[in-house]
Amino acid sequence: MNKKDVKKIQHWLHHRCMLSSEWPFSAELLLQSKQKQLVHSEPVLVYKKGIWKCVRCGNDKPSLFYSHFCYHCETTCTYCRHCIQMGKASSCKQFLVWTGDSLQYKRKETTCQWEGELSLYQKKASNQLVVAVEQRNQAHLIWAVCGAGKTEILFPMIEKSIELGFRIGIATPRTDVVKELSPRLKYAFPTVSQASLYGGSRDKNPLAQLVLATTHQLIRYSHAFDVLVIDEVDAFPYTYDASLQYASMRAKKPQATTIFLSATPSVKLRNTSNLIVTKIPRRFHGKPIPLPAFQWIGNWNRHLQKGTLPAKMMRWIQLHTDKPRLIFFPSIQTLKTCSMILNELELDHGSVYSEAPNRHPVIQAFKQKRLSLLLTTTILERGVTVENLQVAVLGAEQPIFDEACLVQIAGRVGRKQEFPDGDILYWHYGITASMLKAKHHIDKMNKEGML
């Protein structure tokens, strides 16, 4: 084993947890790495007191493990079903961890290329994040309204982290958000090594100093980040998946600074002990978030089943033909039914949902104004910015539209300084507590922002 071999193994494995089946080099090189104590292996699944646990994702639910005859180990083998999308973690495989010399990022001056100016609220939050990075081992929540400019608030903190030789991880729940933020970060910090990671991404720089990733990708990291930012901390799947919270805790270093970003943080998070909370109740352009209007639309589902659209819905679609329109649906089936009706009426539109094969090209067409009407599920409730956008929610009374979701959807409107207003309609068949809470939430933040 020569220095070149050591360097390429370090490059691949440093601060990461990889399965033995993912080892890209020769078996002989793996053996030599272990003998020289450069690589340590440990079971990826452990069995204790009759319970299996996956070391990679933290899963210990019996229903999420499965045993079968394995052709690799030629005996009965158990694997974790919970993190199967990240590669098969089974009882016959090992976790590989780098135990050689740790890489240090050089302290260096870097200039953020973003030329905008932070508002007073943004500056206050940004300054506090810089202090948090300098002091280390802090947990900080930025509670900011939709459109407050959370990404820009991070820029001075990133600049300070690079200056100190720190590694930064920014995790967000959805691939769409990674794709949205990636070019903005690369423009702001062109001299900083960066990686944007999500399922199917081709960006494979494992030693990047600034890592933007979906929360699922954190499962591959161990004690990697001096600063870890969890964007949209209240969003699915992070809030509802304990393994993602487990992975984020393991991905950061023991003395790391943790930063949470959210427009709708849970009461539990806000009341966390030793958590510093900074509120930004005002958008960067100083205008209030448009308040949602409740519009009774009757039994909209019956209309769809009969192959027609409710009259109010049809009028709204025709009213704003010169503006981008986004309609949220409570289910994929409801969306597809509406899409079929629009096709019969020869109304040009696009549709996006989690399983849609052409999702990303359709979203790009909408952003670039090549498409003016887009139907979506809650998959676009966050992270999408389109100027002069008009928004409506069909079936706002449905359980999937809780307070946080409705607040986020309303936050799509008026995000651009040139177009601070716009329609946000909750079409309903009965007003719910979630609808009322969402409107109250927005109104309260608007009033705080005007003080």
Automatic annotation (TrEMBL):
Residues 131-283 form the Helicase ATP-binding domain. One of its GO terms (biological process) is double-strand break repair. SMART domains: DEXDc, HELICc. Transmembrane segments: none annotated. PROSITE patterns: HELICASE_ATP_BIND_1, HELICASE_CTER. Residues 309-451 form the Helicase C-terminal domain. This is ComF operon protein 1. Keywords: ATP-binding, DNA-binding, Nucleotide-binding. The keyword Metal-binding does not apply. It comes from the Bacteria. GO terms for molecular function: 3'-5' DNA helicase activity; ATP binding; DNA binding; hydrolase activity. The keyword Nucleotide-binding applies.
